[in-house]
Structure to design on (512 residues):
């Protein structure tokens, strides 16, 4: 497993992914899970991948191949660089996934390996507002409705609570990034399959280019400050909360 | 799903469970998931159940039946009231589960329903220290090692982060209860299948009786204070944390 996150606020989009790839306990290595498709001034798209690495790598290969091929063919609309809108881009990814399933699913199934892949596709195309899509193994997809400020794939449960408590569409882009990094901190602390470094992309609405991209490891000063401060603050807050007096009473009156 | 939790600290044990039972969206009702087996002065045991309600109710029925029957038979050692130690008690539960599986698993499987049940058994028997066991659908089980202060069943991921940050074996029993309730708060906020009220039992080590038991709903004053204060504190802490200046800089310098 791994963890991928897309956050949408009024100011723009935050994308984040960890870099742990695990093919069993013996084979833990890092692999890039965020992929940018860009046409400066016209579109900025990010695809985050989770699941079987052989499937996600093949998918990326096919999507890039289609872009190269399309320059000399009539299928330009069926690429992430030319599809007319975000919905059509999600269809491009879903279609590519279905083509891969045709050759890969049966051999994998013979070895008991599920066709397991989940994707976040998000970004903005000129003429549209920013959007976030979740794409599933069968190639079907949903768009996050306006009232949903974030989407997650992979090990999403550990870091959900902090997002629910801190992020709304009114949050600043920087606050959304901060919440996203704390969400990853929670997932990394609680689950060995989510690991550093964290890749983060901040996209400013209507910029269509020049997104800020950062890779943050355990030695990143900001991330280190954030993790330490948050842990200290939580410990202080926890200590400051009242305790259930009926338990304290019971301990002081063991005979009752 | 639902959520069950057992915490072990030096002062004693905390048990907690929610009360949501869901057989689909239309049928949401409450059901007791914590069950006490006690012999005053000699043993105090708690069984928390999660999973298919028909299986867990049958299990409870069989365990209680065995206790009644044992008074007139030679199988007294095979009951939760008479088994000589906690390990033997876990065997009693595992054995009962295997007997139920013999008749129930196949009919359920014909309707596509898995034999899904998970259990926490914890408590203390005179002559032993307090212990916590996790019991799985096949009837096998593990004991939580000394360095593990808590065990969870059901929707456990949402509320794991807060436990990892706040509970060690040195925590007071009251602090462990507080952490447990905050863990439930996180699960309830993030997952519709975990619901109020919360049942909580606090057992003082070496007391062998007189555990404190509380059922807390949304109108419980302590729980309400805890939830409100915690949410406020988290929001304050989040706001007080530094934001990534490279995003702030990008927003102020859109041309770069």
């Amino acid at each position: 497993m791994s963890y991928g996150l897309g956050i949408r606020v009024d100011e723009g989009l935050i994308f984040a992914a960890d870099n742990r790839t695990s093919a069993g306990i013996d084979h833990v290595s890092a692999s890039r899970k965020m992929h940018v498709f860009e046409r400066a001034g016209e579109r900025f798209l990010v695809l985050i991948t989770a699941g079987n690495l052989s499937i996600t790598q093949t998918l990326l290969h096919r999507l890039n191949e289609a872009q190269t091929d399309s320059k000399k063919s009539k299928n330009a609309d069926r690429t992430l660089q030319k599809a007319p809108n975000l919905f059509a881009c999600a269809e491009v990814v879903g279609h590519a996934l279905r083509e891969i399933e045709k050759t890969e699913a049966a051999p994998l199934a013979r070895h008991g390996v599920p066709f397991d892949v989940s994707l976040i596709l998000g970004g903005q195309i000129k003429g549209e507002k920013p959007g976030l899509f979740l794409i599933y193994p069968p190639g079907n997809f949903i768009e996050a409705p306006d009232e949903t400020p974030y989407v997650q794939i992979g090990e999403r449960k550990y870091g959900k609570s902090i997002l629910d408590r801190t992020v709304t569409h009114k949050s600043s882009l920087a606050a959304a990034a901060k919440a996203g990094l704390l969400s990853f901190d929670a997932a990394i602390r609680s689950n060995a399959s989510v690991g550093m470094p964290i890749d983060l992309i901040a996209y400013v609405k209507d910029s269509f280019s020049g997104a800020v991209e950062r890779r943050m490891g355990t030695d990143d000063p900001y991330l280190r400050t954030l993790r330490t401060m948050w842990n200290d603050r939580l410990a202080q807050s926890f200590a400051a909360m009242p305790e259930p007096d009926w338990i304290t009473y019971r301990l002081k009156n063991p005979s009752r």
About this structure: The two ends of chain B are 50 Å apart (CA to CA). Confidence is low (pLDDT under 50) at residues 23-28 of chain B. Residues 86-110 of chain B form the longest helix (25 residues).
